[in-house]
Amino acid sequence: MTLVDRDFQGAAGDAGTKDLASVQDTAGAERPLIELRQVSKTFGTVKALQDLEVSIRPGELVTVVGPSGCGKSTLFNILAGLEEPDPGNILRLKGVSSAASDLLGKVSFMPQRDLLLPWRNVIDNAILALEIEGMPRAEARKLAMDMLPEFGLAGFEAQYPNQLSGGMRQRVALMRTFLFKRDLMLLDEPFGALDALTRTMMQRWLLDVWQKHKRTVLFITHDVDEAIFLGDRVLVMTARPGRIKLEQVVELPRPRKANIVTSLEFISLKKTLLEAIEEESMKSFQVAGH
Amino acid sequence: MTLVDRDFQGAAGDAGTKDLASVQDTAGAERPLIELRQVSKTFGTVKALQDLEVSIRPGELVTVVGPSGCGKSTLFNILAGLEEPDPGNILRLKGVSSAASDLLGKVSFMPQRDLLLPWRNVIDNAILALEIEGMPRAEARKLAMDMLPEFGLAGFEAQYPNQLSGGMRQRVALMRTFLFKRDLMLLDEPFGALDALTRTMMQRWLLDVWQKHKRTVLFITHDVDEAIFLGDRVLVMTARPGRIKLEQVVELPRPRKANIVTSLEFISLKKTLLEAIEEESMKSFQVAGH
Amino acid sequence: MSGTATLAANLPVVSTGRIGVVLRPVLWLLLALVVVEAVVVVFGIRTYYLPRPSVIASTIMATPGAYLAGLWRTFLETALGFVAGSMFGVVMAVVFHRWQTLRELFFPLFIVSQTIPVIAFGAVVVLWFGNTLFAKAVISFYISFLPVTVNTMLGFSAVDPRQVQLMRSFGASDAQILRRLYLPAALPQLFVALKLASSLALVGAIVGEWFGDTTGLGVLLLQAMYNENVAGIWATIVVSACLGMGLYGAVSYAERRIVFWGGEQ
Amino acid sequence: MSASVSSDSLRQFSRGIAGALLVAAVWELCARGLDLPAYVLPSVSSILAGLASDAGSLLAAARFTAAESFTGYAIGCLAGMTAAVLVTMIPSARSVVVPLATAINSVPVVAYSPLVLLWFGIGMASKIVMVAIAVSFTIFLSTIAGLDRVDRKSVDLIRSFGADRFTVLWRLRLPTALPLVIAGMRVSTVRSVIVAIVTEMLGAYGGLGWVIYQAVLQVDFVKVWAAIIVASAISLAFFGAISFVERRYVFWR
Amino acid sequence: QDLVNASLRLKWLTQAQFAGFYVALEKGYYKEEGINLTINPGGPNLLTENLVATGADTFGLSGGTDSVFAARDKGLPIVCIGVAHQVTPFVFVSHKDGAVQSVADFKGKTATTWFTGANHVLSAMLSKAGTSPSDVDIQPQQVSVTPFVDKQVDIVTATRYNELYVINERVGKDNLNLFVPEDSGVSFPRDTLIVSEQTATEKPELVTKFLRASVKGWKEAFANEAEAIDIIMKISPTLNRAQQEFMLKEVKTLMTAGKASTDGLFSIDKDAVGSANKLLAEYGVISKPVDLDAAFNASFIESIPAEERRL
Ligand SMILES: Nc1ncnc2c1ncn2[C@@H]1O[C@H](COP(=O)(O)OP(=O)(O)OP(=O)(O)O)[C@@H](O)[C@H]1O
Ligand SMILES: Nc1ncnc2c1ncn2[C@@H]1O[C@H](COP(=O)(O)OP(=O)(O)OP(=O)(O)O)[C@@H](O)[C@H]1O
Ligand SMILES: Cc1ncc(C[n+]2csc(CCO)c2C)c(N)n1
Ligand SMILES: [Mg+2]
Ligand SMILES: [Mg+2]
Fold first, then answer.
1. Is C2-264 assigned to CATH 1.10.3720.10?
2. Ion ligand 5 residue ranges (Cβ < 5 Å)
3. D61-249 adopts what CATH topology?
4. Would you call D193 an interface residue with chain C, using a CB distance cutoff of 8 Å?
5. Which keywords does UniProt give here (chains A, B) (predicted)?
6. What values do phi and psi take at A249, rounded to 5?
7. Are residues B185 and B166 in contact, defined by beta-carbon separation less than 8 angstroms?
8. C138 shares contact with chain E (CB less than 8 Å)
9. ipTM of predicted assembly, 2 dp
10. Of C10, C164, C166, which to mutate for an interface test with B (greatest number of B Cβ within 10 Å)?
């Protein structure tokens, strides 16, 4: 197993980003939107992240895979400004050095579970972030109403979360994240709780929406197919303490069709990634006596 | 989309079952262990199953995929004797016509979630079925203790479910199912709640255990990779009302290695199945306005 | 998923703060008592409004036997009523769970029964059961069984139907399913009710003693009240508080021991 | 679906009534058949007759008791919730206040009643104080439990939207606590009426407890039972009202 | 020796007000008469008449003539077999330095009293003084006498043996005016011994034996007060000894007043009882005057010679 060069700047430069939104963004094309260097995080005696280095350019969709407990959510919490990394780190947003807490309210974040508020209906859940920002409720609702059809939720605005299927709940949560318009979107296993078929549908739909809205996205998943299907780049993390083990540029053309998963390029990417992941998984997966 | 001939007897005859346990079972090799014909099930106004035809030979591992709500769990409930199908059905166990309720206690059944009892430790959860059968506790525990290492649970016998990881919980549930020794084992999405990496590990492990214990298994899953990787045959069900849409024999050699998923035969099987499933998924998956 | 990592995270940690958890409130309480003592003395508050904590203590110490005897008697009544009420409550929950018709016919009346102030018909209880410890226990019983029934039923209804199906697929009988599934599954909810029921049973015993008795905390309370013996009232409150907290603590302790897996499934 | 729900609740309702009638009939039969005198157990019919003939005074007493319990209940709920919110906002106070409140809550309320009567007299004030004490600890503890139920992940999410502590409290913690708070409020309804009545029996200027006390001494057991029925009706109505509010506003569970 | 089981239900908790019965029990006087007696204390929500009528208790020391009349009026089959307090045991109290110096001064003032009979005594006293009861603000009296001590009310009701002690302690014996019902010509004997009609007819000798033992107990209690108080204090150690000594002295006065001074303890003064009967009927507490001879049976107590009952 080889550790690739971790200079993403360079590596990303080679990536096939022909039809990416960021290309239109002439000024910031080469400057990373966000850059982490030497980021570690310790919880008591548990080292969750160690010397992590990540850098994401505007408009990219980067997927992250790694074994359970390797620190993916911790990374997201840092990027969302919810958790401060250990001292000695470098964290740059649009080239400006910042503390993690400065990021609070600056990235839009979708955690592992949908976390919809059961007492709010679809539309009011979607506008939660806008309301907290201080936007008048009526205005926020109007904005969200216009977005409903695109998220496959037209006609469902007055439903409450307990009346929705798992897939629909995820779409409401995604809509809430999209409505909170920020340069960087963090999606932590948004489809982890869905069954495989529903998940496939959601992936295709997400690609559509992403290409229309041109956001920079960091996307955590456990599913290698999903990571390849969606990503411009796939980052494989090591078992705890989490570092980047492998960075794989995905050169599959966009827009991607569903049947791309049986294409040869896809399969060969999958092979490479599976090998890297398998090694890490074995480290953390303990089958005693087996 | 073609509907295949539903004479499983014939179709199964061609299946590559070289190293299957059933071959050794000289008497029952050709007689199906269980056979369902014209099985329908209606809940009030909901038609869950319609004229379902399934037949499973001893020693086979048959996987079932189908969209959510197509009636897979209903099928299992009938086979477990928990639910009576609509009148007019034919249900034969080892060639003997039976009512569904006759099957109660005759098949070992693992429902969709692990359903471990939180107040029982690993060993006592595993022996639950034996205890209900009336086996003395000490004897049942002894039996289960011997099985622990094989299920990767050695040393964990005194742990309680809330102290176990998701993968371990599933293994305890599987062990409970294995200990309840019956001719037919029904596994309803046993790995559905696990993350993709853990799931891969569990699949490989299950194949090992299955080959050692030589049980007949019917296995529900949402994951096409899983269905192909595990099964001798894959049954694809239609959207509600559930019927068999496609029956695909999997001729991949056994024992199967993890990297088989990137083999060409695997990919081509996946292509065929995905097409069939996609059609059905689209029927039940509603993305309004999309 | 790493088994060992999850294990470490979930293993019951022997809390070093345990002693602190008990000690801290005790220290605060002592401090509060000192402050009250000082305030009463400095501002010259009349005993009638608030006796000095030291006066309350010396009131108890003047006749410790009387307070101990009252405590013991009330404890017996409470314990008897509480145990009987809890058992009856669970049995009724099983009956109501098993027979829907009975539930629909009589469960509303169970609720109604609790809206009747027991003090209004305590005399009838004395009429029927005489001036015995048993009569007070009956009153305790009466006001403590309903929460147990309600919560046990709640616990039953939270049982996953798939779990029941699983048991049935093993060929389990109704009795086996009740014993091995429903009853243990209802334990967390049951204990929530038991904690409430223990307090209620104590109220029942004290009120029960207002219907003619020679010993007991309720008697001490009445006597002190009608003789305007404020220090005596306080002394009895303190002893009742100890009994109430003791009962609650005992049930909580049993809960921690028995429902070790926690309420969440 | 909705049709079957309403036919379900119709059956439940009619069965509930049937059960009540059954018990009333058995009671009536016992009272008449065994020729029980009123001072042992008055018949249902005589209680109903008593209810009708004393309607005026019972209604006045009911109003008195209802006023005491509602006022005490409202004060208790407000105090309990406010204290709970304050305690969650000041974490250092928690480790002292919560164990203390749990301890005090396990002390029987009736133990305080003599003191409260001595301090606040036998007017309404003492009943209101008793009810408020009884209610506030229950509400305090259930509110604390409710506020604690909030998922850390949800707090993180809403913080990532830039919410401050008060926004988290208002938009997340309080609504999350609502189901438990209302459940506590529902249980407290019956308790508040009973506490008011028990306190009245130890001394009052009016109210159902006072009527019962007087009626016992005047050997009027029909009146005692009539007052009990009125008390029960108030409790049930109060309980029903809060249950209705609960179903209405905690629709998501 | 064959002992007959029987119980005595008191009107209140154990205190010196009932000392004689406890002394008799302690000294074995009931056993000497062949009775195995249990003494059951009362409580605020218990009606002794009810418990005796239903047979739950054999004997009762009930509230007084008022409660006996009310019970008879409601058809409870009880009979009074002796009256303990020969005169009204309560008095009305005002502050010496206050505006109320005579019963006539009650007009326009605030008085508190118990609405269990004492209120009618007050009304009768007012009527005899020419004041309409509606001109006095009469309120239910609470457990505590503090409102009177704090001068929030002008007149308070007190039993001579209990509340009066507390008022004396807190205000000072010399700072009080006492208004005695008998001075206004109103009498209301209380603390009545009762049995059920059934016991009265079926076991007259049991009743007589009980009375004999009780009388003996009371005489012993009055003769040896310290020992009587010891017995009470042993049962209820939290009581205030000084208060109990005061109580026993006052009770002695009440029990030996009027007819009892000549005929002995537990005498039934038909005149006093009759006036109370009229009073209650007048105020509508009972629907019509009760048949006195059926309600009060003096034959049991009178079967014990007066000299044996006199102190
Ligand atoms: N607040 C915390 N306190 C202590 N340990 C923590 C905390 N948060 C996370 N950890 C530990 O840090 C490690 C990384 O956790 P993290 O949640 O980031 O993993 P993950 O990669 O997101 O896992 P998963 O795939 O299961 O979501 C884990 O071992 C976890 O137990
Ligand atoms: N007891 C029941 N009463 C009424 N409808 C039922 C019942 N059980 C199942 N159904 C309905 O029958 C259909 C098939 O359900 P089933 O649970 O068998 O689906 P499934 O294929 O197992 O779905 P999933 O993949 O989500 O587990 C669904 O529409 C379901 O709503
Ligand atoms: C007529 C009369 N009515 C009520 C009371 C009030 N009360 C009820 S029980 C009790 C204790 C008696 O020692 C007291 C004070 C009374 N005293 N006398
Ligand atoms: Mg995570
Ligand atoms: Mg299913």
1. yes
2. B 73
3. MetI-like fold (1.10.3720)
4. yes
5. ATP-binding, Nucleotide-binding, Transport
6. -80, 135
7. no
8. no
9. 0.85
10. C166
